[in-house]
Design a protein that fits this description.
single chain; 11 helices; alpha/beta; TIM Barrel; 8-stranded parallel beta barrel
Length: 216
């Protein structure tokens, strides 16, 4: 399993990249709107820090316009993955982009059926939105498990990304449910790494060593 970071903030990306635990970055127009920066310049900054998959989302629902926008983004770097909406128009765009060897990420998936369509269309990634599935009273973990089973049974090359993370428990649950990748907001990384009992134990070890160590 892999972890991506879900942000366009370069300082957040730099900090977590130093841990050696992230292999990619996901963004969307809402995330970028908070940054007030030139899109291409920020993309170049991000890829200097994390030279792996970077998802950029199209800003249209028209399939022809999606393709044009996707080609523009893909020309910036081989690491660019173009996010397209889960819709008939999005699937149409994925099919064309696959033939052009442009990597895609079908986003805002809520059901197994939608994930299956993304796999059949040849998307590079299929993004299941855990918290938003739970918001409407369905079990996101069941959607992840069943989608993973379908992908394995069908030998899809598409990887499952679980996003829309609002709780720490959703990260562990997604991993156990069989996702390939969880894309995690910055604020959760410190919670992943830290635990009061760990800190207490380490402090006890350090204090004990103070009583026995000798000067160098």
């Amino acid at each position: 399993m892999e972890l991506f970071i879900d942000t366009a903030n370069i300082e957040e990306i730099r900090e977590i990249a130093q841990w050696g635990v992230i292999t990619g970055v996901t963004t969307n127009p809402k995330i970028f709107s908070k940054e007030n920066v030139d899109l291409r310049s920020r993309v170049e900054e991000i890829l200097e820090v994390v030279p792996g998959p970077l998802s950029l989302e199209v800003t249209t629902n028209d399939p022809d316009e999606m393709i044009v926008e996707a080609q523009k983004y893909a020309a910036w770097s081989k690491h660019i993955v173009v996010k397209v909406p889960m819709s008939p128009a999005g699937l149409q765009a994925v099919t064309v982009l696959r033939q052009k060897n442009i990597k895609t990420n079908v986003t805002a998936i809520m059901t197994v059926n939608q994930a299956m369509l993304a796999g059949l269309a040849g998307a590079t990634y299929a993004s299941i939105f855990a918290a938003r599935i739970n918001d409407i009273g369905y079990d996101a973990n069941q959607v992840i498990r069943q989608s993973s089973a379908v992908f394995k049974q069908s030998s899809f090359k598409t990887k499952i990304i679980v996003g829309s993370i609002r709780l720490m428990t959703q990260i562990n649950e997604a991993a156990l449910a069989g996702t390939d990748i969880v894309t995690v907001p910055y604020k959760f990384f410190s919670q992943l790494a830290n635990h009061p009992q760990t800190e207490k134990t380490i402090q006890e070890f350090l204090e004990a060593w103070e009583g026995v160590k000798t000067p160098v």
